[in-house]
Design brief:
Layout lengths: L11 H4 L6 H25 L6 H28 L12 H9 L6 H26 L6 H27 L7 H13 L44 H4 L7 H14 L2 H11 L6 H27 L4 H4 L5 H9 L2 H14 L7 H10 L3 H29 L3 H15 L16 H9 L23
Bound molecules: fe (ii) ion (2 copies).
């Protein structure tokens, strides 16, 4: 009989290799899961203050992948040990000392070198080493999860290497790289199993780390100080053509980078939640970054210099991060998402509008945006409303109140000389015709939440 044996997993000889025992596997997975928790933290702390748009995009994805990778590791540990070891505390002080040192990174290049030049390549190498050494039959479950993580971690490290090169290269911050490498070595490497030399340079932290959630944009966004954003109103304005409304919708999508900024702070300040909270909330964070990317892809595809022509201001994240508690910010987000469900004004309306404009790319983007939004309403109910301890009416009321109250605070950030209605000129340039929404006064913020609950 030549039917492959052992379910095709490996040969009899391979299955007879000793590999790694349960104790060591648990110890390794606990460390990997904790490292992924800290990778999530870095993303949450850095999405706001890091100005480069592309870094925000990647941090959004990688923050989500970190929570997704930790989840099956935590589950696998609990399959092998009952009761499982604690997963919500650092497994090793020296590992934690290294992971904390990363937070002393100051520039974007230093942040990227710390995570993508030192930590992640070491983590990827350890996953691969573990995968190669584990017995393919007896520890099939661990190898299976490592295999999918290696694929995604490999892509992540590749993005990081290219980004580091684009910012001038690792050699620019060689002292920082070797500083962190010394801390990693002193932790016994990723696995903790390498012989330890406790020879580390003095910590670079001059004071305890405090996260900065002030949202920043890089210098390419020349209109970031202009808070006038007519697309909010135009997208739902009577008498405006479907073509112009669709252009407005795509501008609105692009502006959505402010939602990952808002969510990063909300999640970072929500301590000690079940791990599913972090998985769901970072999934939504990544979805919102993708919505911004959908908009930018659309505009780029039409040859529009969107970073220059559209005021992609951080007004929403300024209002929510700097002027509300995390719970109040969640109430605002929940209220907005609830308001997007009615078919005649919400996400279905946006999809229908793009279809009526005869624009297949915008229609596709709105189609997935709508699907994501249904998921977000569910996430908002489970992790916003439920955790608030409020009734739905109270939570929506708080969201509406805080959203309206905070509209005024933007005045403190706005340079009056920079506030102007760019929409008519933009429409003329892109569509080759005059806007049908002329002569209107525009709000600076999306008033969609005012309809919520009604
Ligand atoms: Fe969105
Ligand atoms: Fe959403």
């Amino acid at each position: 009989m030549n039917i492959p044996s052992l379910a095709g997993v490996c040969s009899y000889d391979q299955a007879a290799q000793i590999g790694i025992d349960v104790d060591e596997t648990v110890q390794r997975l606990v460390r990997y899961a904790w490292i992924n928790k800290r990778l999530m933290d870095y993303g949450l702390y850095w999405i706001n203050p890091t100005p480069e748009w592309e870094v925000k995009e990647a941090l959004s994805l990688h923050t989500y992948l970190a929570t997704e990778h930790a989840a099956p590791m935590r589950k696998r540990v609990s399959e092998m040990r009952n009761p499982p070891p604690r997963m919500d505390v650092p497994p090793d002080d020296r590992l934690e000392r290294f992971l904390n040192e990363i937070l002393a990174a100051e520039t974007t290049l230093e942040k990227l070198v710390a995570v993508y030049g030192v930590l992640r390549p070491a983590l990827l190498a350890e996953y691969q080493k573990h995968y190669d050494a584990a017995n393919p039959l007896v520890d099939y479950p661990t190898r299976r999860l490592l295999r999918s993580m290696i694929v995604e971690e490999d892509e992540t490290v590749a993005w990081g290497a290219a980004a580091i090169d684009a910012l001038g290269g690792m050699s620019q911050v060689e002292a920082w790289r070797s500083h962190l490498q010394a801390y990693l070595d002193a932790a016994g490497g990723i696995s903790g199993l390498v012989a330890v030399s406790d020879d580390v340079p003095p910590s670079r932290h001059v004071q305890p780390f405090t996260p900065d959630f002030y949202p920043r944009r890089d210098a390419r966004f020349v209109q970031q100080g202009n808070f006038v954003f007519p697309p909010h109103a135009v997208a739902r304005m009577e008498g405006v053509s479907d073509e112009e409304k669709t252009l407005a919708l795509m501008c609105k999508r692009t502006l959505e980078m402010d939602v990952p900024e808002v969510m990063a702070r909300m999640i970072a300040e929500s301590e000690k939640q079940p791990w599913e909270y972090y998985v769901d909330m970072t999934r939504q964070l990544w979805d919102e970054a993708r919505h911004a990317m959908m908009g930018s892809v659309y505009l780029q595809h039409r040859g529009i210099d969107w970073k220059r022509e559209i005021p992609l201001h951080p007004g929403f994240s300024l209002r929510l991060n700097q002027h509300m508690s995390a719970l109040e910010a969640h109430a605002v987000l929940y209220t907005i998402e609830q308001s997007l469900m009615p078919a005649d004004t919400g996400k279905k309306y946006e999809w229908v509008t793009a279809g009526a404009a005869g624009d297949p790319l915008a229609k596709l983007f709105q189609d997935y945006d709508w699907a994501d939004e249904v998921l977000h309403v569910h996430i908002g109910r489970e992790w916003g409303l439920a955790l608030s301890g409020m009734s739905r009416a109270e939570f929506v009321d708080m969201g509406q109140r805080k959203a309206s109250e905070s509209e005024g605070v933007l005045e403190a950030y706005a340079d009056p000389a920079k506030q102007f209605n760019w929409w008519p000129g933009f429409v003329q340039h892109v569509l080759g015709k005059a806007t049908t929404a002329q002569d209107r006064e525009f709000d600076t913020s999306d008033p969609v939440y005012r309809k919520a609950g009604s």
